[in-house]
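Anyone up for a design puzzle?
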């Protein structure tokens, strides 16, 4: 996918990994190994959203500054990355309901999440815009529109088969 290509352009490898290797997280980006790992038991839409989230961590510089005196706290890093992923998913006309609960969790409540989003809006918009522009240039946005319409019309069995195929394609690109 174009998102995997963007991750690789940042100098990171990408792999679909067993959930047990990620300690309960949907995704994990490691600066020491320059790798992005995403759980193998997620739906294709959640895999895409998680990949965007991990790309956002890289683009936002979280792996360099997290936990340092010039860095930000983990909650703010998660708010920024998830918000970027949400914006990119919206540009692709894809649902990301999970994002709101995730941001609220890391911010300690709804009011705090709203404050955090407002305080980080410029950074979120800037990074989101860059990713969306690159996805549009790759033709991903128009392709996703067509896929979303097909997905909604598909039966549960067709969705399961498509999800299996997409997972295989992602693993083949590792």
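Challenge accepted. My sequence:
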């Amino acid at each position: 996918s174009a998102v995997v290509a963007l991750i690789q352009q940042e100098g990171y490898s990408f792999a679909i990994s067993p959930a047990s290797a990620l300690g309960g997280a949907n995704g994990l980006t490691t600066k020491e190994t320059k790798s992005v790992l995403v759980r193998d038991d997620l739906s294709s839409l959640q895999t895409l959203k998680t990949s965007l989230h991990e790309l956002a961590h890289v683009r936002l510089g979280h792996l360099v500054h997290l936990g340092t005196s010039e860095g930000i706290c983990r909650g703010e890093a998660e708010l920024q990355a998830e918000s970027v992923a949400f914006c990119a998913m919206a540009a692709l006309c894809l649902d990301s309901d999970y994002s709101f609960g995730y941001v609220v969790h890391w911010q300690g409540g709804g009011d705090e999440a709203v404050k955090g989003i407002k305080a980080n809006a410029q950074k979120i918009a800037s990074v989101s815009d860059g990713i969306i522009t690159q996805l549009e240039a790759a033709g991903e946005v128009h392709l996703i529109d067509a896929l979303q319409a097909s997905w909604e019309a598909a039966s549960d069995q067709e969705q399961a088969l498509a999800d299996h195929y997409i997972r295989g394609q992602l693993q083949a690109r590792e």
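A detail worth pointing out: The first helix runs from residue 2 to 9.
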